[in-house]
Specification:
The protein has 369 residues and is α+β, with helices and mostly antiparallel strands. The chain folds into 3 domains: 82 residues, RNA polymerase II/Efflux pump adaptor protein, barrel-sandwich hybrid domain (OB fold (Dihydrolipoamide Acetyltransferase, E2P), Beta Barrel), CATH 2.40.50; 55 residues, E3-binding domain (Dihydrolipoamide Transferase, Irregular); 168 residues, Chloramphenicol Acetyltransferase. The strands form 6 sheets. A 4-stranded antiparallel β-sheet has the order 1-7-6-3, with no helix packed on it. Strands 14-11-15-16 form a 4-stranded mixed β-sheet, with helices on one face. The protein has a 3-stranded antiparallel β-sheet with strand order 2-4-5, with no helix packed on it. Strand 12 and strand 13 form a beta hairpin. The chain starts with a strand and ends with a strand. About 12% of the residues have low confidence.
């Protein structure tokens, strides 16, 4: 019997995705693990794999369509294709969500978290997900079926939430132009930057640093690393310096939550990388304890795959602080926007020759801010 394949949530933050490209066509036979499609999420383009063998009976959604992925990790509302398994199994009622090998309930991480918050017994639920897995909708349904008992004293009715603002229509001037559809990445960037500037207090601190000693050290190290085909950039030094500074001043290596201030004991640096589809921040983990050559090699790999939209979610989600370097564009100074829930971001401008007082005499030095 045909089975509809629905848009999966490929990362914890994914709420919708664009079916960017089909990698199969109707009539193709596929096995578990075969690639079916490329899906553009809010951060990268990711591959959608088949979970079973079968034949692609019909493609129901065209490339470029934006089905919504529900449950932050569960089945979505869009149907990319219909896969007819071989041999075709019988259609059965949802199974009780138990694993074959024990009493552990089969449930998604989000469903488990919601059930714990709401006091719902997962063992009492029927799972509607694949293989009887309990998903968010099952927990939501349990909450509606068994509402909390009303308190003895009638509480004052809560104020109705304000309706979401309706997007205002924009009138485009009668000027020659072209319109390009916003990608999910650009939509996410716009939303998060707006939220950050509105909700996160920004305090800007600026300092000029002299680079001559760093540039001298860089030249010496690169001479020794040439045989390994490694070339350190100033940005690699900045990643290392920020991580060491955060380790020495842990009060800046923090994450804010509504209830707690989390202080990290390791510095994972999110590095802003410009790509054709927007900005993304791959992470150099534990940069404070890494060698400069290791940072340089990993950053080159992360940046290349970021530009090709090939990063894995764990390679760009997280981080304890961010670094944004626009010096290569000749920008002397700029104010970067904090990437919440992180507590800080370091913005780096271009190095240039400047007058500088050295040993009480005016000389020329290479400096940047």
């Amino acid at each position: 019997m045909p089975i509809e394949l629905k848009m999966p949530a490929l990362s914890p933050t994914m709420e919708e995705g664009t079916l960017a490209k089909w990698l199969v066509k109707e009539g193709d036979t596929v096995a578990a693990g075969d690639l079916l499609a490329e899906i553009e999420t809010d951060k990268a383009t990711m591959e959608f794999e088949a979970v079973d063998e079968g034949t692609i009976a019909k493609i129901l959604v065209a490339e470029g369509t934006e089905p919504v992925a529900k449950d932050g990790g569960e089945t979505g509302a869009g149907q990319p294709a219909t896969q007819a398994p071989a041999p075709a199994p019988e259609v059965k009622a949802p199974a009780q969500a138990k694993q074959d090998g024990g009493d552990r309930v089969k449930a998604s991480p989000l469903a488990r978290r919601l059930a714990e918050q709401r006091g719902v017994d997962l063992g009492s639920l029927q799972g509607s997900g694949p293989g009887g897995r309990i998903v968010k909708a099952d927990v939501d349904g349990a909450g509606k079926a068994a509402p909390a008992a009303a308190s003895p004293a009638a509480a004052a009715p809560a104020a109705a939430p304000a309706p979401a603002p309706t997007p205002q229509a924009v009138t485009v001037a009668d000027i020659p132009h072209e319109a390009a559809k916003l990608s999910n990445i650009r939509k996410t960037i716009a939303r998060r930057l707006t939220e950050s500037k509105q909700q996160v207090p920004h305090i800007y601190l600026t300092v000029d640093i002299r680079l001559d000693a760093l540039l001298k050290l860089r030249g010496e190290l690169n001479a020794g690393l040439a045989a390994r085909n490694v070339k350190l950039s100033v940005n690699d030094f900045m990643i290392k310096a920020l991580a060491v500074a955060l380790t020495e001043v842990p009060s800046c290596n923090v994450m804010f939550t509504p209830a707690e201030l989390i202080t990290f004991h390791r510095a994972d640096i999110s590095v802003a990388v410009s790509t054709p589809t927007g900005l993304i921040t791959p992470i150099v983990k534990d940069a404070g304890s890494r060698a400069l050559s290791a940072i340089s090699t990993e950053m080159a790999d992360l940046a290349a795959r970021a530009r090709d939209n090939k990063l894995k979610p764990e390679e760009y989600q997280g981080g304890t602080a961010s670094l944004s370097n626009m010096g290569m564009y000749g920008i002397r100074q700029f104010e970067a926007v904090i990437n919440p829930p992180q507590g800080m971001i370091m913005a780096i401008g271009a190095g240039e020759k400047r007058p500088w007082v050295i040993d009480d005499s005016l000389q020329i030095a290479t400096a940047r801010r």
